[in-house]
Structures are given as structure tokens and as C-alpha cells.
TrEMBL record:
Signal peptide: none annotated. This is VOC family protein. Residues 7-132, 153-272 form the VOC domain. It comes from the Bacteria.
Length: 311
């Protein structure tokens, strides 16, 4: 069992319009843009990060906004819903706020006794706010949402699968245990203290076709380990179990390894180090365009061609 894994680290998705994406997360949801950089493999495309004040692992939503990207088709073999944690008793506030902000498909739900508010992102992305009774994480409060209502970080991700059994076994190997089941949904919680972003739900949909990735789709979900030493331990254990795992890749703000799950979803194991303040003062995170070293020579071109984001 991989006791090194301590919950979710980040979720990375695809978008169509960078400015609309930035507005949704910073103005409508009140998160902080903590990094403005570019895709390592396609430097003419932003990589935008949103989260709490410092980008604490378990709070960070990231996006690749590909201009003119076709919208994805929802289905199995993907993360269907990303859930954020909010304080008890705040869903009425959020329902009104999202309605006032023009957010679409806002609807109350309940799962495993938790009150939830589901809604769509700009590209049809699936999101949920979950009232969490005991989430002591400090929120970002300079985004127009008060301390008593603001998002604390991730609560969970929900994966849609035609057959969830093999992915369930993988999660158990990754330090998760099955804690609840209702209908076709099974909930897994990370063992130990975790980092607040502790849950993964598996939804079995045997008759649903596989999704097609595009704007609004989750590209990958990342799980947190403390450091590179722990990451290498996880990599070896996964490879010994038969998974094809990438070499360690330097992503500037964390080190990453990737592998494909039995259900087709791309998993990443990301380190909590070095963090998002390695090249920016905490007070100014997400303000300047930060480029990977190999793309620094493109700065003049990128600064003139990348879409302005606004504040």
C-alpha cells in the first residue's frame, strides 16, 4: 500500500477561452490565480493555476485553454465532476451568487448525506460545491467571497467508469479505503490525515460510451506526495505492480510522474515541493507571465500573442 499518497494535489482540465476561464475562477468562484505560465509541450497555450493564497496541494485547479478547441463529449473513462469544499450552511449563499453571476445549470443535490450544489463551468465542465462540516483549511478571501463562505479547496473528484472494479483496487493500493456505497457510486477516502482533499468517488455506468476529450474535459488528476523521495518510492511500487509510469518530470512548481489507469483516466503523482512561490513572491502570485526555462526565448512573441486575461 502506498502510504506516501496524502490526497488530491491538483486537477488539470481543458478550456477554450483563457479570459473566460480566468473570469470564472477568480471572479465567480473567488479563487486566486496563483500562476500564469504556459503549456510545456505547446508554449503558445497558457497553463493557468487557481487555488488558495499560496496554492496549497489539494486546492489547485489548473487549465490548458486551447483557443477554438471543440467541446468535449461527456462519457466514461474520465473525471466527470470536480467537487470543492465550502462551510456548512453556505449553499444558499452560493446558489444566489452563481445565479447572479450567470453560471448555468445550478441545481441542489445530495450524496452520502452531504448537501451539494452542482453547476457548469464555461465549457460545460462539471463542478459541485459540498458542505463540509470539519474543513479547517484557510480560504483565499480577496476574490470577492467572504471568509465564512469561501471555497476551502477540493473535496473530491468523481470518476465515470464502465467497470470500476480495477480502478477501485488501484485506489486501495494508493492508500484509499472504500468508506461508503450508494447505488452505482462508491466513495473512497485516503487513509490517515490526508490534506483535506481526501475523497474519490467511482460512478459505474456500464452502458455509457467513453467520453471524448475537449474543452470542458479533465485532462488528468494528480495525487499528492510530500517530496521527491516519496515520489520515487511510489513510482517503483507502481512499476513493480505492472503499471507503465513515466520518468520524473520537472514541472517547475512540483515534480510529476504519470500513468494510465485501468479505466483509462490519466493519473499523476505530484510532489508538494517546491511550491508556487519558487519564482514569485507570495503577495504577487499569478501576476507575471512565468515561462519554463526552455521557452524563455519565446517571451516577446508570447507576451504579444497570448490572450489578455484581465485581472
Amino acid at each position: 500500500m502506498l502510504e506516501q499518497i496524502k490526497g488530491l494535489h491538483h486537477v488539470t482540465s481543458l478550456a477554450r477561452d483563457a479570459a473566460a476561464n480566468n473570469d470564472f475562477f477568480t471572479h465567480k468562484l473567488g479563487l486566486r490565480r496563483i500562476k500564469k505560465t504556459v503549456n510545456f509541450d505547446a508554449p503558445d497555450v497558457y497553463h493557468l493555476y487557481y487555488g488558495d493564497e499560496v496554492g496549497t496541494p489539494g486546492s489547485v485547479m489548473t487549465y490548458f485553454p486551447f483557443p477554438h478547441a471543440a467541446r468535449g463529449r461527456q462519457g466514461t473513462g474520465e473525471v466527470g465532476v470536480t467537487a470543492f469544499s465550502v462551510p456548512n450552511g453556505t449553499l444558499r449563499y452560493w446558489e444566489q451568487r452563481l445565479a447572479d453571476q450567470g453560471v448555468t445549470n445550478v441545481r441542489p443535490q445530495e450524496r452520502f448525506g452531504e448537501k451539494r450544489l452542482a453547476f457548469d463551468g464555461p465549457d460545460g465542465d462539471g463542478f459541485v460545491l459540498v458542505e463540509a462540516a470539519e474543513d479547517g483549511r484557510a480560504p483565499w478571501t480577496n476574490g470577492g467571497v467572504g471568509t465564512d463562505e469561501a471555497i476551502r479547496g477540493f473535496h473530491s473528484v468523481s470518476m465515470r467508469l464502465q467497470d470500476a472494479d480495477a480502478t477501485a483496487e488501484l485506489l486501495k493500493f494508493m492508500n484509499y479505503e472504500e468508506v461508503e456505497k450508494a447505488g452505482n457510486v462508491r466513495r473512497f477516502a485516503v487513509r490517515g490525515a490526508g490534506n483535506g482533499a481526501n475523497y474519490v468517488d467511482l460512478e459505474t455506468l456500464p452502458m455509457v460510451n467513453h467520453g471524448r476529450q475537449g474543452a470542458g474535459s479533465v485532462h488528468h488528476v494528480a495525487f499528492a506526495v510530500e517530496n521527491r523521495e516519496k515520489q520515487l518510492e511510489v513510482r517503483k511500487a507502481l512499476m513493480d505492480t505492472g503499471y507503465q509510469v513515466t520518468p520524473v518530470i520537472d514541472r517547475d512548481y512540483f515534480w510529476a510522474i504519470y500513468f494510465r489507469t485501468p479505466g483509462g483516466i490519466l493519473f499523476e503523482i505530484a510532489t508538494n515541493e517546491p511550491g508556487f512561490d519558487r519564482d514569485e513572491d507570495t503577495a504577487h502570485l499569478g501576476e507575471a507571465l512565468k515561462l519554463p526555462t526552455q521557452h524563455e526565448h519565446l517571451r516577446s512573441f508570447l507576451e504579444s500573442h497570448l490572450q489578455p486575461l484581465g485581472e
